[in-house]
Every structure is written in C-alpha cells, then in structure tokens.
Amino acid sequence: MPTTPKTVSYRELGFVNTKEMFKKAMAEGYAVPAYNFNNMEQLQAIIAACVKSRSPVILQVSKGARDYANPTLLRWMARGAMEMMKEMTDGTAPIPVALHLDHGDSYELCKACIDNGFSSVMYDGSHLPYEENVKITKQVVDYARQFDVTVEGELGVLAGIEEHVSSEKSHYTNPEDVEDFVKRTGVDSLAISIGTSHGAYKFKVKPGESVPPLRFDILEETEKRIPGFPIVLHGASSVLQDYINYINKYGGKMEGAVGVPAEQLRKAAKSAVCKINIDSDGRLVMTAMIRKMFAEKPSEFDPRKYLGPAREELVKMYMDKNQNVLGSANRV
Ligand code: G3H
Ligand code: 13P
Ligand code: ZN
Predict the structure, then answer these.
(1) Which of 172, 185, 235, 324 has the fewest CB atoms within 10 Å, i.e. is most exposed?
(2) Interatomic CA distance for residues 244 and 11, integer angstroms
(3) pTM of full prediction above 0.90
(4) Residues 201-234: tens digit of each pLDDT
(5) Where do the domains of the chain lie, and which CATH numbers do they carry?
C-alpha cells in the first residue's frame, strides 16, 4: 500500500507553473481561467471543459477548500485529474494545468502547499500595512523560488466576504506602489483592485440601472509602470442572471445579485490581465441546477441524479467563459 510522501514536487504530479501560461496569454491577448474547486464534480467539469475547448487552466484551491476536502485527498484528486487527462491522449497532458493556492493567508500555508505539489501560490497580504505585505510576500517568494513555484501577490483590497477573505470596503490599488512592490518582493504576477469584488453581490444597483464600469484607468496606469508584467483580476464572476433566476424561481432568495459584465472582462483579458478568477459563477450553476432538479423531481434521492446534471451545466458554463469571455479557448 503506497503511503503519501511528506513532500512532492508539482512536476511529479504533472502540473506546470504559471510562467509560460502567462507569457503566451500576454503575447496573444487573452486571460487564463482560474477556476476554484472544492469537490469532485467541480474538478471534473473544469477539466472536461478546458480539454474540450483546448484552454490552459489554473485549478484554484482556497484555504477553505483545503479544509473542506482534506489537503491529502485534494492533492490525490488533483493528481487523479491529471492521470485521467493523460489517459485521454498519448500519455502527455493535453492542456497545461497549474495547481494554485488562492488567497494564502500565511507563509506557513504557502509553504505547506508548495511542499504538497502546488505549482503556484498566492500570498494575500493586501489587508496588511504595505511594508508587512512586502516582507511576508518576499519570504514566500524566497521559499517558492527553490522549487520553481510561481507566486502571486496582491495590492489593494477587494470588497466581499468569503470564509477566509473579508472586507466591507474596497480600496483601489495605488499604481504608484506597484513597481516598488514587484521589484522588492520578486512576485511573478500581481492581483490588483479595480472595482471587482468577491461573491454574488458586487454592486448595489437599482432596477434598470447598469453596473459601474471597472477602473480601467487604474489598470492602464499599472501597466505603464510595470510593462509586460502579468496582472490578475479577482472577483470576476459575472453572476450569471439565468442561474440567479432559476435559484429565485425554485425556492432560493438571491435578490440584487449582480456581477461584472462579460464585455468588461473581455476588455480586461486583452490587456495585461493574464489570469481571471471565477468561483461564484460555478457555485451559482450548481445551486441553480440542484434546486431545479429538487423542485421538478421531488422523489429523487440519488445524488448522481442531481449532481450529474449540475456537472453537465458547469461544463457548458466554463466552455462559454473560455470561448466567449476570456479568449483562452483553442490556445493549446
Ligand atoms: O476568493 C475567494 C474564493 O471565492 C474562495 O472562497 O474561501 O469561500 O473557498 P472560499
Ligand atoms: P468571484 O467571487 O467573483 O467568483 O471571485 C473569485 C475569486 O476571486 C477567487 O479568488
Ligand atoms: Zn479572490
């Protein structure tokens, strides 16, 4: 019976870091999708959608996901996904896949993920005083460098509340800080705050009003100061209204949920934004399809009968993002 080794390199698991992914995305004007997963169905859907649409992908795991699924199981699940993919072809992975820690909140967590086969980590010190953010981010970079693991840092705070990331108000990134931060920390990519936020309630808009545009001026100013440097956009779900409507129709209550319009994401993807993070849209699809199934077939009690259709719908949604929003389809 094989035992789980204490440390493992991401290369042994078949993952790649984000360097080449971002280089190509920058040169060709698209963004690599970073989709969060917490369970088998989400992981299967992400892989299926990205193989079908021939898109590179970043499999994203938050601290909450790690706690939910168990870090060891998660690592074997991700490895299993790579093996499954290789079986579809001649033994090589048909698309490049990175395994990334989303919103790492400590040096220790980042180190644990690097030791456990992650090819990329985010250290999120955006809520800390600037110098503290620089110090810990650099510590993470120094450790990651030894294993050629890529590191994402963050400047500016996004509003929104998740299990481990929470801020009531957003603070836009100050473009004057980015050059110094990138130089002193040595990060490989930088998440910035230009008006997106986490979760399903990104903007407060009255009926008939459209959502305010993202601060593309801050993005442009950032690009001027660090030309050719990969930028990351968090909180980029569009909060797809078809699924909100299903949720509300079939017993849910999500009034006023709105996200970032697809056109704005398309525009961002053509710029130095090389990675776009999407979690909430996946959550909405699963919830909508499960609620619909429960309402239409109340006697059904086999989880495969409601998780299966939810997984199929997820594949369609991720394929649409790759093809029509991020522009990452047919890039491999
Ligand atoms: O940005 C955060 C992600 O959506 C992950 O959320 O911490 O609830 O897993 P979570
Ligand atoms: P959403 O909540 O908009 O999907 O953002 C996800 C995210 O930024 C993960 O890091
Ligand atoms: Zn995020």
Answers:
(1) 324
(2) 39
(3) yes
(4) 999 888 788 889 999 999 999 999 999 999 999 9
(5) 10-326 (3.20.20.70)
